[in-house]
Design a protein that fits this description.
Elements lengths: L1 H65 L18 H11 L3 H9 L5 H17 L2 H9 L4 H19 L9 H24 L6 H13 L3 H12 L6 H11 L7 H14 L8 H13 L5 H4 L3 H16 L8 H13 L3 H11 L13 H15 L4
Protein name: DUF4034 domain-containing protein
Keywords: Coiled coil, Membrane, Transmembrane, Transmembrane helix
Organism: Streptomyces nojiriensis
């Protein structure tokens, strides 16, 4: 009897355990179902929130566009200002094989060396893609200083296209080898252009500035090159902005050397000569390459604010018809945005909007420009 009692008890206990297991399994399933419902509701709420945010963002963007600003999709990231019809026609002509149109376009700059530099580059870019027309030009006029100039600049562009824009750690040794070979060839071409040039023309020496970065000219060698440029045109804006790259930490200098060079050049300039852009470039490069610097604090430091104020005075003194002023307006808009000077920032954004192939925007996706522009516009527009 006792054995039967024990056996019954064991069976009863086993049944209890089984039923308890079934209970917990069912409870777990109910909990899982409830959790799934909760997660589904959470995902739906998150989706609704994201959709609401996206809708709000789209409405804000549309409101800014309604005020006359350019939609993000239509921003030109290649040019700092609208391309002239003359440039468009000249580039189209040379691509069709008409080198004489390119020669006439470049010669029309006369002794406006800044204009000659700006006209040379789109021709060089066209030749870097297909140089048949340039070869025909050089064959027809072997001693033409303009043909030699474009040839040298084309060589530089081809070399840098091989090098690419990636950091050294992401560039192959084979790329570096070919890059150096091409730059050495471009150096010879630049020296030829310098020999053929008008003795007053600094542009062939400016072509060598990019070569100096890639080949690693010593400071003494670069000083000699700089002296050749300065004795021909001591206030040439593009030459100075090119020099800022050489003196930057990412190439052959340091933040300290770049800022010292920038301040010295800006201090020597007269109001309206726009060299006040140089310290702004130095600060941008420093903030980009020092991870512990944050623009919301660094750009509000007294010395940076003073540099921005000086640049605004310089800009106000410039000839309103001077297209070079756009190169100062681009960084000014960025600094004024970070300094919470939104009304002043919006004034600059109105001048530059539509064409953002300039410092500092060229370092980032165009969404960075749109964010800064739209923020400043919303801050100064009631109800936006």
């Amino acid at each position: 009897m006792i054995g039967l009692y024990v056996l019954g008890a064991m069976l009863l206990f086993g049944a209890f355990k089984f039923l308890r297991g079934v209970y917990y399994i069912r409870k777990a399933k109910r909990l899982e179902a409830e959790i799934a419902v909760i997660e589904g509701r959470t995902e739906a709420m998150n989706a609704e929130t994201a959709a609401a945010k996206a809708e709000r963002k789209a409405q804000q963007a549309a409101a800014v566009v309604a005020l006359g600003f350019v939609p993000e999709a239509e921003l030109d990231t290649d040019n700092a200002l609208p391309v002239s019809p003359e440039q468009t026609a000249a580039v189209a002509a040379v691509k069709a094989g008409d080198w004489e149109a390119g020669a006439a376009y470049l010669e029309a700059a006369g002794q406006d060396w800044e204009e000659r530099w700006q006209r040379m580059r789109p021709l060089s870019e066209a030749a870097a893609e297909d140089d048949a027309w340039l070869l025909a030009w050089r064959a027809a006029r072997p001693s033409d200083p303009s043909a030699a100039l474009v040839n040298a600049d084309t060589g530089v562009l081809v070399a840098w296209n091989v090098r690419g824009s990636a950091r050294a750690s992401h560039t192959t040794q084979e790329q570096f080898r070919i890059f150096r070979e091409l730059l050495l060839k471009a150096q010879e071409q630049a020296r030829e252009a310098q020999r053929l040039a008008d003795p007053a023309d600094p542009v062939p020496y400016m072509v060598e500035q990019s070569i100096s970065q890639g080949l690693g000219y010593s400071h003494e060698e670069y000083g000699q090159l700089w002296a050749q440029i300065m004795k021909r045109d001591p206030k040439l804006l593009s030459a100075h902005t090119n020099a800022m790259q050489y003196w930057s930490q990412k190439w052959r200098g340091s933040h300290e050397l770049a800022l010292a060079f920038a301040r010295e050049c800006a201090a020597k300039a007269e109001p309206g000569e726009l060299l006040s852009v140089l310290p702004l470039i130095a600060y941008i490069e420093q903030e980009l390459h020092e991870s512990d610097l944050k623009p919301e604090t660094f750009f509000k430091e007294p010395e940076v604010v003073a540099a921005v104020d000086a640049a605004l005075v310089d800009l106000a003194a410039a000839d309103p018809a001077d297209w070079r002023s756009i190169r100062l307006r681009h960084p000014l808009a960025w600094f004024l945005f970070w300094q919470d000077r939104d009304a002043e920032a919006v004034e600059q954004f109105r001048h530059i909007d539509g064409h953002i192939g300039a410092m500092p925007w060229r370092y980032w996706p165009k969404s960075r420009y749109v964010y800064a522009r739209d923020w400043a516009v919303r801050e100064v527009t009631p109800g936006l």
